[in-house]
Predict the structure.
Amino acid sequence: MLSVEEYDSPLENKWCPGCGNFGILAAMKDALVKLNKRPDEVLVVGGIGQAAKTAQFIQTNFFHGLHGRALPSATGAKLANHELTVIVNSGDGDCYGEGGNHFMNAIRRNVNLTLLVHDNKVYGLTKGQASPTSDLGFVTKMQVKGVVSERFNPLLVALSLGAGFVARGFSNDRVHTSRLIQDAINYRGFALINIMTPCVTYNKINTHSYYKKRATDLYDTDYVPDDLDKAMKMVQEEGDQMPIGIFYQKEKPILSDRIDVLKDRTLLSREFDSQAVQNFLDKQ
């Protein structure tokens, strides 16, 4: 029987005390145990940033890519080995800023992986600059007169691009976040969970108490996540109520289903024929 301790990493964690990332890490471990996923069956991929460091703090296979480049690496790994459970941990800056193009194209391809975005509305690693999800007027040491760009809405973008699993979580609610992660891993396709994650050091607006007052659990309602129009309307409404849960879920063909040579078996299972490669190159 698996235990959470089997996922504990020996590496020292230097997140700020109170950081929302701790809740996501704990929820991820809990979800993997409940799904009976052994550490060797899991690959956690990160880019650059505090959220991306999650890959170091869980005892599974892990890979660090460049800033914003976690999704291409994760895509390659999943195409090479379909049996791997691939989880990407990224921040709002890493994923929606530097990695915005990869975010959109991973949705279009419908890669069979889970993306957890630790959305703290600020750049935590590089000392508090505004991120794509910072609210209009948000003041930082760099944006001293406030953010002048409209906030990037990742949930709306994902829905508009045809994502089949779109959800939002709250890092403080570990039980709920664990349930979301389990549902995302069980979903066959690209699964996005944008997680409201307080940054206790650089964001004094979107705090733990701010989200606690607003978070409402869709699992506790009769909401059925099968209506795209209703989901798109819901993700545009942010005020006193901020629903957490699955906004939309629909099965659709994944990337490897659309590639003939990957339908039946993975690249990993194929025997490498160097002579065939050379023959191909000689003909070019």
Q: What stands out?
A: The longest helix spans residues 21-34.
